Amino acid sequence: MYQSIQEVKNALAGRARIRRDGIDMLEGITFQERLVDAIVYSAVFNEDTKVKDVCKWILWEAGLELGVYAASIQELYAAKSRGEILHKTIPAINIRGLTYDVARALIRSAKRNRVSAFIFEIARSEIDYTMQSPSEYAAVVIAAAIREGYQGPIFLQGDHFQINRERYEKDPEKELLSLKQLIKDAVDAGFYNIDIDTSTIVDMDKPTVGEQQENNVRLTAEILSYIRGIEPIGITISVGGEIGEIGGKNSTDEELQEYMDGLQRELESGLCGISKISIQTGTVHGGIPLSDGTLAQARLDFDTLSRLSHIAIEKFGLAGAVQHGASTLPIDTFHKFPDTNTAEIHLATQFQNILYGMLPSSLKDEIYEYLKENFDEERKEGQSDEQFIYKIRKKGFGPFKQKMWNLHATVKREIGTKLEGQFDLIFEKLRVANTMDTVRKIIKPVSIHKPIPDGLMY
Fold first, then answer.
1. Which of 71, 78, 237, 251 could make a disulfide contact with 244, Cβ separation 3.0–4.6 Å?
2. pLDDT digit string (tens) for 165-216?
3. If you classify domain 69-355+405-442 with CATH, what class do you get?
4. Which of 456, 362, 332 is nearest to 59 (CA)?
């Protein structure tokens, strides 16, 4: 880890030239193979925020120089809505821990399978418990792409950027401002894809579907308008909406109709709307653990998914419906998503399960003891130890982030290999293999340079 800005400058000497508006790469291969690991480690773990900021800036600007750039998936989804891209479902991958190594494994699989149609994402709740700010997450993903020699768009997405119902009911203005600040931080970091989730305030006690969705529609429109006002020049941020909170009742045709009709009335004339719609089809985030720690079989309603995707595409010009909570489904069902024209599926828990399953026993035991000591108040009545740990262990990623990052190279290599196999299968089942040329034809690079941090210029 670099301890000072001067150490960073010394490492770059002769390999990269710092400009006020970017970087000239003098020895790209050396930067990729010998410097990136230390720069990204410093961006994450250095206690000096100025050194962190310098390292994040270097990774962003080096990425632009080496052909790695943050992008919006908006135009790809517009092509999908026009029927130009059929029966392909975009995987959106949430990385909670060992982020650099997991991202490298995902990119290696993407390069091997010639895939550019995939998304890196992190949810509002994950940002908190994994201790990964948007700027850190973006820097780590871009570093992983540089390290693996990937060139092309990187789709960074804010997943479930949602209104917390309890906080909103206590102080609506404060909660809305908090969400807008998160969105601003994310967009500044390169997240040009944002999923608005105000389905948390759908009021099922109201007598009609239109009234039930009223607050959801109003807040989606307000937040979407805010996003349009802060997006960088040349970028149209892809924005998703949501009509049914995951884990609740299955979504209906009428809910989709009322939500979209209401949103079209609320939005200013000419303002670009949402590109996709998240619905509920019977899944639960993380799955449902049984008393022995195994998972209950999820019952996903593919008929609802197919029908609502069709309505979203044909009637409202969207890319289709979005499926959350899918990673614990059997992999042999994944072909049904492109069959039903599902736009996107969000995957997280299975990768978390693989990672925990391959951690050294000593570290895993240490994490579990920490969770029992610090989160016992979240244990639900009647939960077995196995159920409690399964549901809570996602909260071990933040406090143990550095210990996971410092795992022996052999352990990390084995984890990466296992995950690569999973990514290969996902790309195959969702039919996004060999999308690299199509994506690069549709998604044009937009170079967004960031202000140089203090102390970096020679």
1. 251
2. 999 999 999 999 999 999 999 999 999 999 999 999 999 899 999 999 999 9
3. alpha beta
4. 456
- Calpha distance 453→55 (Å, rounded): 10
Kindly state the helix (H) or strand (E) to which residue 404 belongs, with its residue range. helix 401-405
Half-sphere CA count of 125, side-chain side, radius 13 A: 10
- Give the list of residues 6+ apart from residue 312 with CB closer than 8 angstroms, or none: 256, 260, 276, 277, 318, 319, 320, 321, 343
According to DSSP, the residues that pair with 278 across neighbouring strands are 242, 322
Residue 258 CA to residue 256 CA, distance in Å, equals: 6
What are the distances in angstroms from CA 136 to CA 52, 111, 131, 349, 449? 9, 23, 9, 21, 17
pLDDT tens track for 362-378: 999 999 999 999 999 99
Q: Which residue has the tokens 């296992």?
A: 418
Statement: the pTM of the whole predicted model exceeds 0.85: yes
Longest alpha-carbon distance in the chain: 69
List the domain boundaries for the chain. Answer: 5-66, 69-355+405-442
| Angstrom distance (rounded) from CA 452 to CA 22 | 8
Residues 6+ apart with CB under 8 A from 333: 300
| C-alpha span between 248 and 200 (Å, rounded) | 10
> Scanning the structure block, which residue is given the tokens 């406090």?
399
